[in-house]
Each structure stands twice: as structure tokens, then as C-alpha cells.
Design goal:
Number of helices: 9
Order of helices and strands: HEEEEHEEHHEEHHHHH
Shape: globular
Radius of gyration: 19 Å
Distance between the termini: 44 Å
């Protein structure tokens, strides 16, 4: 979106590479080099939103403010880190907010999916890493990521999994700034059933992220989404999850110990999922 010359003028201490690494509804991400280090430079797509730093901001402003608060306060190698900013720069005459995250050189799990199925040991290793990130967000900040999927899990230089893209994370102690109307933001074909209900009647906690983790691990083990193909509707997705049995997962070619663990992760009813992170961690380790 931004011209190379405009980025060079705005960030004279950076070498900003085109094209973008990613493009979302309210910010752009670029790979950049600064002081001999590669970083992900994130810049708001539109001019600086008013009140972005306020805790009670809503809409785009609230998403940006909340994401930055989480990045500044969570401490875990399994969650992306804030390494620069936030700050304000002038790009083509208009003010934009920017900040920097650590660059994940290994790409994303979505990149791995297109290469084909991953073996069970690798799936367990990734699952344990992502679970560590889920636990850090919940135990340290009482935050639910609520958009875990292969494209939001990166791999660092040692192939360790790292959660990123916290723009729609849910903090029950803050206002509804990351919601649109009555329905919370999500990626439908990874989201837990409770995410489709109005906020007033929904209790989100770490088990919501465990559901999405289970779907994501099934996907990387199979090399495809377990329930979704072209044309699949949300109702069909729900029906597949609700009727899922151990024999169905084993029938996909997944080893029984891992299948049992993932089945419990993706239970339609939240009360039937793992009640603690430790219980899931133990079962994942045993499934290896």
C-alpha cells in the first residue's frame, strides 16, 4: 500500500522490504532490517486513529491499544514480542502508528500445511509450544487469543512455535472493543462453538483456545483441514465437530494416543474439554 520511497523517508533507520509480509484490515506488516536485526514492522493502514492508546477505546483504536498492552505485558518465548515502538511517523504527509515485533524466520504453520502432513512427533512438539503460549496469555493476563490457526502460528529460527496476531484477543476485564455487534471476531472454521454466541451469554477462557489448537493440530497432521473443504458451511462444520468420535479421527490416519488427545480438545461442549493446561500437556507428552 505504501510506496517504497515514502517508507524510506518515514523510516530512515530501517531497510523496509516490499511487498508486505501481510495485510490486515487495519495494519500492514513489513519485513525490515534495523541495527543488523530483522524485525516485523507493523504500520496502521489508515492515518493515526484518535485515542488509540486509551484503555476504553473502541473499534480499530481499541484493537490496536489492546494488542499493544498484551505485547508489552506478556512474558513468554511462545508469544511474539514487542521489540520497538509504538511510535508515530509521517507517511506521505499523514501520521501513522507503527511498532515492531520479532521476526519469525521459519514462516508459519500454514506454510507447512501446503507441504503435506507432519509426523506425529512434530505435531506434538508444536502443540506443546502453542499450549505454552496459550497458558502464558491466560495465566499472566487472563487473555484468550481466540484466533489460533496455522496462519497465526509462526516458527522461529529453531522451528519453535510462536503465537502472533493478537489484534482480536479477548480480555474479560476490558470493554468489548474487539467485538463487532453481538458477535466476537473469529475465523469461523477454527473457532470454538461458544465464539458464535453473543458475548452476553458466552464465557470464554483458555479452553476456547484449546479448541482452535486441536483443529490446527489436526490440520498439520493431515496436511488439510479435518472438516472443511471448498463449499463447507459453518453449519456443516458444527455438525462434523458435534458428531466427532475417536474412530473418525483414527480413520483419518492419526495415531490413537494423539487422536484421543485431539478429540478431547475439540469437544463441542466446553465442559468436556481439558479442564487444565497441565492435563492437556501431560496427554500431549504421552502421545509423542
Amino acid at each position: 500500500m505504501f510506496a517504497t520511497r515514502d517508507l524510506k523517508d518515514a523510516f530512515p533507520d530501517h531497510q523496509v522490504l516490499q511487498p508486505e509480509l501481510g495485510s490486515g484490515g487495519y495494519k500492514l506488516a513489513y519485513l525490515a532490517r534495523r541495527d543488523g536485526m530483522e524485525v516485523v514492522l507493523k504500520v496502521t493502514r489508515h492515518p493515526l486513529p484518535r485515542g488509540w492508546e486509551r484503555a476504553d477505546a473502541t473499534g480499530t483504536e481499541g484493537r490496536i491499544a489492546q494488542e499493544l498492552r498484551i505485547l508489552e505485558n506478556v512474558s513468554s518465548p511462545r508469544v511474539v514480542s514487542l521489540v520497538g515502538g509504538p511510535g508515530v511517523v509521517r507517511i506521505a504527509g499523514q501520521l501513522h502508528l507503527y511498532y515492531e515485533e520479532n521476526y519469525l524466520a521459519g514462516g508459519t504453520l500454514a506454510d507447512k500445511v501446503v507441504q503435506g502432513p507432519m509426523d506425529a512427533h512434530s505435531v506434538v512438539t508444536i502443540g506443546l509450544d502453542v499450549l505454552e503460549g496459550i497458558a502464558a496469555l491466560w495465566n499472566q493476563l487472563n487473555v484468550v487469543h481466540r484466533d489460533i490457526k496455522p496462519s497465526n502460528v509462526g516458527l522461529d529460527g529453531e522451528d519453535r512455535a510462536v503465537l502472533f496476531d493478537l489484534g482480536t484477543a479477548f480480555d474479560p476485564s476490558v470493554t468489548d472493543q474487539t467485538d463487532t455487534g453481538d458477535v466476537a471476531p473469529k475465523t469461523s472454521m477454527y473457532a470454538a462453538p461458544e465464539q458464535f454466541q453473543p458475548r452476553a451469554g458466552t464465557k470464554l477462557d483458555f479452553r476456547t483456545d484449546v479448541f482452535a489448537l486441536g483443529i490446527s493440530l489436526l490440520e498439520i497432521r493431515l496436511g488439510r483441514h479435518p472438516f472443511v473443504a471448498q463449499g463447507t458451511t459453518v453449519s456443516q462444520y458444527f455438525a462434523a465437530v458435534q458428531s466427532l468420535a475417536l474412530s473418525d479421527i483414527v480413520g483419518m490416519g492419526i495415531e490413537a494416543p494423539l487422536a484421543r488427545t485431539l478429540l478431547r480438545c475439540v469437544q463441542f461442549n466446553v465442559s468436556r474439554r481439558y479442564k487444565t493446561v497441565e492435563m492437556l500437556r501431560n496427554d500431549l507428552e504421552a502421545a509423542a
